[in-house]
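Hello again, I could really use a second opinion on something today. I've dropped the whole record in just underneath, so have a look.
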Amino acid sequence: LPRSTSASHRARTASAKAGTDEAKKQSDDAQKKFIEAQDQQAGKKLARDKAKSELDTLNDAVAKMEQDGNANDADIAALKKKCDAKKDELANVAAELEKMTTKVDSLEKSADAANKAYAAAGTALKDLAAATNQMASKAANAEDSIHEEKMKFLNQKIELENQKRASLVALAGYAESLKNIKIEEGNATLSVDSLHSAIDALGKIIGT
C-alpha cells in the first residue's frame, strides 16, 4: 500500500481498536452492575420470604391462643403486636424488593445493549482488518504485475537489440562479399558505399 494510504488504515484500525476496548469496558461494567443487582434482589427475596413465614407463624399462634379459653388477654395482645410489627417489616421488604426488581430489569437492558455494542465494535474491527489485509494483498499483486510487465518490456528490448545486431552483421558480411565480385567498378563502388551507409545508420540505432 502507498505510505499515506497505509498510515490512514493504521490510524483507522487504531481508532477502531480503541473503540472496541472502550465498548468492552462498558460491557464489563454493565454486566458487573447487573450481577450485583441480581444478588441484592435475591437477598431481598429471601428477606421477604422469611418475613412472610414468620408472620404466618405468628398469625397461627394468635389464632390458637384466641381459641384457647385459658389464654391471657395480655399475651394475646402482645402477640398481635408482634404480628403488626412483622406485617410492617414484610411490607417494607416487599417494597424494597419491588424497587430492586425494577432496577434489575433496567440494568439487564443496559447490559444487553452494552453487549450488542461491544459485539458490533468487534465485528467492525474484524471487517476493517480484513479489508486492510485485502487491500494490501491487491497492492502486492499490482506491484508484482507491474514488475512482470517491466521484465517483459526489458526482454523485448533485448530481443530487438539482438535482432539489430544480427542484421548489422549480415549487412556487413554482404558488403564484404560485394567487394569481391567483379562488376563494373562504378556500380560496385556505389553499392558498397550505400551498404556502408546503411551499416553506419544501424550502428547509430543500436547505440541509442
